[in-house]
Amino acid sequence: MTGKLVIIGTGPGNPGQTTPQVLDAIGDGELFFGYGPYLDRLSLRPDQGRIASDNREEIDRARAALDAAAKGASVCVVSGGDPGVFAMAAAVCEAIETGPETWRRLDVTVLPGVTAMLAVAARAGAPLGHDFCAMSLSDNLKPWELIERRLRAVAEAGFVIALYNPVSRARPWQLATAFKILRESLPVSTPVIFGRAVGRPDERFTVAPLGEADQQSADMATCVIIGTAETRIIDRPGMDPLVYSPRSANP
Amino acid sequence: MTGKLVIIGTGPGNPGQTTPQVLDAIGDGELFFGYGPYLDRLSLRPDQGRIASDNREEIDRARAALDAAAKGASVCVVSGGDPGVFAMAAAVCEAIETGPETWRRLDVTVLPGVTAMLAVAARAGAPLGHDFCAMSLSDNLKPWELIERRLRAVAEAGFVIALYNPVSRARPWQLATAFKILRESLPVSTPVIFGRAVGRPDERFTVAPLGEADQQSADMATCVIIGTAETRIIDRPGMDPLVYSPRSANP
After folding, report:
1. Looking at the DSSP assignment, which residues form a beta bridge with residue A163?
2. Is any Cβ of chain A less than 8 angstroms from the Cβ of B171?
3. Which of A26, A74, A192, B196 is the most buried (most CB within 10 A)?
């Protein structure tokens, strides 16, 4: 058993946000598994192999990667952002737990990265400046009723909310419904940030009050951050406003 | 107004986890403001200035940095981890909002970093594999009753919980109380991860069931991750177990 498997996060897409540790792992890898657009960012050498798959095939991809590592390859499983946040690290762990005993003997390493909400927050100012949560709005792997319950719980408890996977072709109404639920407990003036491809040439970044937040501002690659009643907007002459959540909070 | 201010996050401490973008900003900076131990990690040149302050003086540090930038300096405000997660970005925004009008005209940039919970999670496996939240356990800036309410809300709603600032000399009992509260709604077998200085020579990393989790396992630089009833531990021969939260969830 000489193979090994490294699960990497390349960050939000700006090459300046990929850590040196991850760049080293990319240099050392022999066989790369991931969603095609993430693999496209890597500039692999001709001697490095790539096996691209659709982003809905995470568990099959994890199994194929583990199988290759068990056969002796030096395997790299590639996520955008951080591999532990709605990405491949959990899928690989699930595959190990339910797979052959030999997979438990593999050298498995997870290398963290800058996850989307941190890059979107940095672009905005400091909207995650106090307690916050991260939720996937996809109901592919959990029931929608649970998502609604979680949205209500965290909004009422005063957490900033970062939403991943806000919309997709197969999930067209979920984000609008989430905004409707959040309007029940948050002021209509609450800032909502839509950030996509932040730091890349195709960046899309907008801020809207919750009362006017439009699900059309998001696509599947957008991270949506919803503030709390305490989140502030600082207008600045000739520049984007700063959006931030104060470090202090009232009961 | 030629000065500028960049707020950087150097990551959890392993030099391989500081992004190239942040390394460039460090190279370009003239004057560095931050908590002493974070500045010590930077290897500044003799022509670069450093102004260290205690980690309880964030707002004064922010004002001093803005003042220096307004006078024309190229200023770098340094956080460990990510500057937007319980760190300097929100303090700088607060100082701008309450400070002189000229501070709103400054060129202010926030550069994200790998925050502690991502590094601790990567070390463990994938404990943040589904919906999660990040909370500061410090009651310096918010009432303890609010912290208790938030802990109950997120534990009952099934979020993984990452705790920052779990203990300090001035806050000796808060973490033990948090564990007590969490035991009311989570099984005693729920995995609790204590990670400190992950990826550095002085790393401390332990996993314990919630029923036996001991506040002595944490200090002020520890990030504590508490799983959910669904979080799993995969034992592996001769290696640390993998701790992960499955991507799917039940109602």
Report:
1. A135, A224
2. no
3. A192
Nearest to B186 by CA among B166, B208, B211: B211
Q: Which residues of A touch B82 (CB under 8 A)?
A: 114, 118, 122
Backbone angles phi, psi at B184, to 5 degrees: -70, -30
Q: What is the pLDDT of residue B16?
A: 97
Beta bridge partners of B136: B164
Euclidean distance between CA atoms A171 and B122, whole angstroms:
30
Helical residues (DSSP H) of B51-162, grouped into ranges: 58-70, 88-98, 116-124, 144-156
Q: Which of A4, A79, A92, A94 to mutate to test the interface with B (most CBs of B within 10 A)?
A: A94
- pLDDT digits over B42-72, tens only? 999 999 999 999 877 899 999 999 999 999 9
- Closest partner residue to A131 among B91, B110, B135, by Cβ? B135
The domain limits of chain A are 4-114, 117-244
Taking alpha carbons only, the member of B105, B90, B114, B71 closest to residue B7 is: B90
Residue B3: per-residue pLDDT = 83
B139-171 confidence digits (pLDDT tens) = 999 999 999 999 999 999 999 999 999 999 899
| B123–A90 C-beta distance less than 8 A | no
Four-way CATH pick for A117-244: 3.30.950.10, 3.20.20.60, 3.30.930.10, 3.30.70.100:
3.30.950.10
Residues 6+ apart with CB under 8 A from A159: A131, A132, A133, A228, B133, B150, B154
8 Å CB contact between A42 and A10 = yes
Domain B4-114 belongs in CATH node 3.40.50.1820: no
ipTM of the complex: 0.97
